[in-house]
């Protein structure tokens, strides 16, 4: 086998595959095996001391959409927030958002300028990141730092009719997430808005809406 080029290439290919598997699969598992996977409740509690966190956003939703929120969720409690985040992720997956949006800022091509700091392994060590939705397509912007960049009513309008907020958008409309208009999100609508506002909320730099202007131009993209 070693006497032919094809044999050498085969062995080399298998060797590089094994090396890549160790570097990208086994090593990260060993590095973070001692860290328990955080529950949604634990992540909410971790943010409790921050002046602006996902609970702040949740309470804001209960004020902005008082009647829909009271009808579909009730009170803005920690238990209801945890349940809403879980449903939001389920809705995000069910509606196929992950087909066009990634959730991983890579250390290449100035992605840090466009989307925010490069993603770190520890950010995915929690219940809402299982399974991870790194994604490869960027028909729409990466969303892993989306939380806090825009108001919840912007997201409501964007889900209801994307072209109202981003004229060049190719994103489909999601009217079934509302009871008539963008001012009346139903339970799934409130859940997916909460989930999107949660993305990146674990970072010290959340919310990004107060950061550099370059990060605020994302709304002009599809």
Description:
With 222 residues, the protein is mainly α. The chain folds into 2 domains: 1-34; 37-220, Cytochrome c-like domain (Cytochrome Bc1 Complex, Chain D, domain 2, Orthogonal Bundle), CATH 1.10.760. The protein contains 8 helices and no strands. The protein is globular and about 75 Å long. The relative contact order is 0.15. It has helices at residues 5-32, 40-46, 54-64, 66-72, 78-94, 111-115, 152-160, 187-198.
In N-to-C order, the SSE pattern is HHHHHHHH
CATH fold annotation of the largest domain:
Cytochrome Bc1 Complex, Chain D, domain 2
Helix proportion of residues, in percent?
40-55%
How many strands, which pairing sense, and closed or not: the largest β-sheet?
Answer: none
Average predicted confidence as pLDDT = 86
Short description:
This protein is 43% helix and 0% strand.
């Amino acid at each position: 086998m070693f006497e032919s080029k094809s044999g050498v290439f085969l062995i080399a290919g298998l060797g590089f595959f094994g090396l890549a598997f160790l570097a990208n699969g086994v090593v990260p598992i060993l590095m973070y095996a001692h860290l328990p996977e955080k529950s949604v409740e634990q992540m909410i509690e971790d943010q409790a001391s921050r002046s602006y966190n996902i609970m702040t956003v949740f309470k804001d939703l209960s004020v902005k959409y008082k009647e829909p929120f009271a009808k579909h969720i009730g009170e803005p409690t920690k238990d209801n927030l945890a349940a809403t985040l879980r449903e939001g992720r389920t809705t995000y997956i069910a509606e196929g958002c992950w087909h066009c949006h990634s959730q991983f800022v890579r250390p290449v091509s100035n992605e840090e300028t466009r989307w925010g700091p490069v993603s770190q392994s520890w950010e995915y060590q929690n219940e809402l990141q299982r399974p991870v939705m790194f994604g490869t397509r960027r028909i729409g912007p990466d969303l892993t730092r989306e939380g806090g960049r825009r108001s919840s009513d912007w997201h409501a309008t964007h889900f209801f009719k994307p072209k109202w907020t981003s004229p060049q958008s190719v994103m489909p409309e999601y009217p079934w997430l509302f009871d008539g208009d963008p001012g009346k999100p139903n339970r799934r609508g409130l859940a997916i808005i909460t989930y999107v506002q949660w993305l990146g909320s674990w970072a010290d730099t959340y919310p990004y809406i107060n950061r550099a202007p370059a990060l605020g131009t994302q709304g002009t993209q599809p």
